[in-house]
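Limitations

Structures in this collection are predictions, not experimental determinations, and the ligand pose is part of the prediction. Treat each record accordingly. The example that follows, with nicotinamide-adenine-dinucleotide as the small molecule, is included so readers can see exactly what is and is not provided: the inputs are given verbatim, and the output is the predicted complex.
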Amino acid sequence: MRMKGKTVLVTGAGSGIGRAVSLLFAAEGASVVAADVSEHVHATAERIAASGGRAAAVIGDVGSRESCLEMVEAASERYGGLQALVHAAAISRKGTVATMKEEDWLDVQNVNLNSAFYLGQAAVPLLSVKGGAIVFIASQLGLVGTRNSIAYTAAKGAIVNMARSMALDHAQDGIRVNSLCPGPVDTPFLHASFMRESDPESARALSLGKIPIGRFGTPLEIANAALFLASDEASFVTGATLTVDGGYTAL
Ligand SMILES: NC(=O)c1ccc[n+]([C@@H]2O[C@H](COP(=O)([O-])OP(=O)(O)OC[C@H]3O[C@@H](n4cnc5c(N)ncnc54)[C@H](O)[C@@H]3O)[C@@H](O)[C@H]2O)c1
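Predicted complex:
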């Protein structure tokens, strides 16, 4: 029960890593505000309730400042405060600096990066009441480059360094801020990225070939790392970048 008595806001909670984080944190005693732009977030909250946990679903777009405020307010209204934020919502669009439309670039920066600013602004006052933790789900592609993904890699790299600066700014407020960089993880997000390629099967094989452990990660493997970072077990960990990537960035 490593999150007993704590309230966590999880974005991207309708699928993949965000859903796994929501289920795991609830099993560890957290009250979960599960937020997503998709209706699938209701299923996450229902699964938590069915196993005796506490969860509220909020539909909202993390690219909107108002929605981010509503997500954070839901935590204080429903459960009286906020002790952890796990920001997992993100999108991806293919493109190089030469081919990407400005609209796609802006969409990615808004959903993947501006959201961290909006959520951080709304959450810091609540997190500082009793102390708390922020975990930004970045990506191994925030640490190394890749082809044809200029907007995504820029946003993820920015999140990693934003986490470090936020850690410095809010250490004295009792708020720890860390980024978690998954490698390729078996979720709809990863499958969609293969489907956008002209040959999805060879894109999948290429991705697999970059992982020394020889398989994709599971959402639970990422959730376990997020739980560590958000829990008191990581009480001396702030400004850190934790890679959980099967060795991808060690190559
Ligand atoms: N799956 C991977 O291989 C992988 C690798 C590295 C990093 N990541 C990161 O992990 C995080 C979770 O990805 P996932 O693989 O679980 O993806 P996923 O597609 O399974 O889940 C992402 C969720 O975010 C939600 N979302 C998208 N845009 C939103 C918005 N504007 N507002 C609110 N919710 C929104 C989606 O509806 C979805 O439920 C992302 O930040 C992603 O960049 C994933």
